[in-house]
Specification:
Blueprint: H1 2-25, H2 50-72, E1 80-83, H3 112-123, E2 130-132, H4 145-155, E3 161-166, H5 173-182, E4 186-190, H6 196-202, H7 208-219, E5 227-234, H8 242-248, E6 253-258, H9 278-291, E7 301-304, E8 309-311, E9 322-325, H10 331-335, H11 338-348, H12 356-359, H13 362-368
Parallel strand pairs: 1-2, 1-7, 2-3, 3-4, 4-5, 5-6
Antiparallel strand pairs: 8-9
Helix pairs in contact: 1-2, 1-9, 3-4, 4-5, 9-13
Bound molecules: iron/sulfur cluster.
Iron/sulfur cluster binds at residues 263, 295, 297-298, 313, 315-316, 352, 357-358, 361, 363-364.
């Protein structure tokens, strides 16, 4: 297999390189059709269109830090920062470890002083692009969310945007209006089904009627300043719904990707995983490793828990390694700590399996693990 990878490598590297250049410059290209139907009057999100627009945006945010560090081993600041302001969700989704991880903790809400400290540090850093006051929770259960968005937007630099990711059940027209007044730029609704039956199997604990009523009301509102994405996490229970999902929700931007195992914490993951032909899964791994020489989670992203703890990776719901706490340290200090740089060095050398959280992570096994190391996605 190593021989096949070596033979295919130059061709795949060329194609992957072309795609990266295209994605990195997509927003600058004079393409009149590349304007979103939602958020078209907001310069921070107007060029975010559909599936490719979201991936291009992600690539544009996450690649520069990796490249900079690989060249210079210099200081980094996260381009995307997630903050958990409340450790609660109202759902028990099939592909999410929340019911047997975060839900077992006592309910806690981030205090205002800590939140303001995080906002002040982020607003002072031009390298920070996306501020996401959501992590391992349903952010709209925090009744102060509108105030929190407004505080960030008051202090933010013009290019910095706020994204909220919600399951859509608390996204009533009243709250949408308040969020828009607060200045939210991008709202992503995790829907994951195209009919009630599938929805009940995948989005356990939520009401299809309530969420779709919210979305119907949303589609009638003035969305010129806020870009709306609907997200579809594809797994075995909803795989048949994707086509209808795309047809039904064409008023919004749509974004879909395959289920992942949240660093080994999703129960019964093998029963949910999307099966690919062996060659396709190898091709996926070869091309992804050419696009991303290391995992973006520790080079470009950071997430902060409601008590100020900073786990190594947002994807690890077990929080196996906590690198610091924002009550005593700054974001910059934690992001450039000796341990953080050691983790980056291990990844740069391809030694993912020497890192406990990565060893079990499907991102590593399905996207970044060299084909010659074996294993199937
Ligand atoms: S490979 Fe490691 S750093 Fe990357 S997402 Fe998985 S656990 Fe996080």
């Amino acid at each position: 297999m190593r021989l096949i990878e070596l033979l295919l490598s130059p061709f795949i590297r060329f194609i992957a390189g072309l795609l990266v250049v295209l994605c990195m410059n997509l927003e600058r290209l004079p393409l009149p059709f590349l304007v979103s139907r939602t958020g078209y009057a907001n310069p921070r999100v107007r060029r975010l269109v559909g599936w490719t627009g979201y991936w291009a945006h992600t690539l544009r945010l996450t690649l520069p830090n990796i490249r900079k560090w690989m060249k210079t081993r210099g200081e980094l600041f996260p381009a995307v920062l997630q903050v958990q302001t409340i450790n609660r969700c109202n759902a028990a989704c099939d592909f999410c470890p929340y019911p047997y991880t975060v839900h077992l903790q006592e309910k806690r809400i981030m205090d205002d002083a800590l939140y303001s400290k995080i906002v002040d540090e982020c607003a002072a850093e031009p390298g920070l692009h996306d501020f996401v006051p959501m992590s391992k929770n349903e952010p709209l259960l925090d009744v102060k969310m509108e105030e929190r968005v407004a505080e960030f937007k008051r202090k933010a630099q013009p290019h910095q945007l706020v994204e909220l990711v919600t399951n859509g059940s608390p996204l009533t027209p009243v709250r949408v209006k308040r969020l828009m007044d607060a200045g939210v730029d991008l709202i992503t609704v995790s829907l994951n089904a195209a009919n009630e039956e599938t929805y009940n199997r995948v989005m356990v604990g939520l009401s299809w009627r309530q969420v779709t009523d919210n979305l119907d009301a949303l589609s009638k509102m003035d969305l010129s300043n806020v870009n709306i994405y609907l997200r579809f996490v594809r797994e075995q229970k909803n795989r048949e719904d994707l086509r209808v999902f795309r047809e039904r929700w064409g008023d919004f931007n749509l974004f879909f990707f395959d289920v992942n195992n949240r660093s080994g914490t999703v129960r019964n993951y093998p029963s949910k995983i999307m099966d690919y032909d062996r060659w396709l899964s190898h091709l996926k791994r070869i091309s992804a490793s050419h696009v991303y020489p290391a995992c973006p989670y520790v080079f470009s992203l950071m997430h902060i828990l409601e008590n100020g703890d900073v786990p190594m990776c947002a994807n690890d719901w077990a929080n196996r390694e906590v690198l610091g706490n924002l009550r005593e340290q700054s974001i910059r200090e934690i992001y450039n700590s000796p341990r953080m740089n050691q983790l980056r060095e291990l990844m740069a050398q391809g030694r993912f399996e020497d890192i406990e959280a990565c060893r079990d992570c499907s991102f590593y096994h399905e996207w970044m693990k060299p084909v010659w190391k074996g294993g199937e996605a």
